[in-house]
Amino acid sequence: MQTEFQGLFPAIITPMTANGELNEDAYRKVMEFNIQAGVDGFWVAGGTGESVLLDDEENYRIAEIVADQSQGRVKNIMHVGASTTARSARMAEHAAKVGVEAICCVPPFFYRRSDNEIVEHYRIVASVADLPLFLYNLPSATGVEITPDLARKIQDKVPQLKGLKHSSSAFGNVRTFAKMGLNCLIGNCQLMLPALTLGASGCVDGPPNMVPEYFVEIWHAYQTDDLKLTESVQDKASEVIQQIFDCGGGFHALAKVVLGQRLGIDCGDPRQPASPLSSEQKDAVSRCLEALSLGSSGSDL
Hints:
By secondary structure, the protein is an alpha/beta fold. The protein is 47% helix and 12% strand. The longest helix is centred in the C-terminal third of the chain and has 19 residues.
């Protein structure tokens, strides 16, 4: 198993201002909160970061923010997926220029593309950046399943390929990807432990950026080879996430409210057409965090 990119990589939110613009100060505070909790890196401007709702200039600025804020303490994997190869390539080139450690990219979406077209898309995007490349296997959103066979075709033509985020129901492929020498980062935090036992090198998911301490503990417990302890920590982490989800509302809105309340900052609302949480749902979040002893830590990060 490759070890350069391993551990917990929260898929970070993109905080917004009251006017719906990128909130740089809040972004840095969410990053620092997670870094202090011990995360190994970030999956930046992906699904949790409202990737397809951001314009290219915002993606450029986010890449600059994460590179500057992390200062080499963690590894940032910047999402550069877009509707055209040219747009993806421009974002990849910029990410490399500002000092991001790796890029990730969904396959071409909306129109069904052949395997050869998908491979060529990745070849071009990776070649302009010359950074480690992670595939983003998210078939529920893209309509494209990155199978082991397709991953091998990409591996043959794209020397920068390092691994993938595997957010697919084909859970058994985790083992196959690992045996191919790829860093397979599981895209479901509630399956983090079973994925690690199959050879996954870590986890990328949105919920951990709300409560990173629980998932950092899973990773550390697993490194001790104490399976019973790791099972216990995974159960607790999954229980906490479920309690937060039970507050209601869409995930992007919920994550922003949770982090806003934990850090004592305003992370804004998700971009339309997503709806913000209702006042009742925000109150439910407050009660949930209080019950879990996850109240505000202030905004002095």
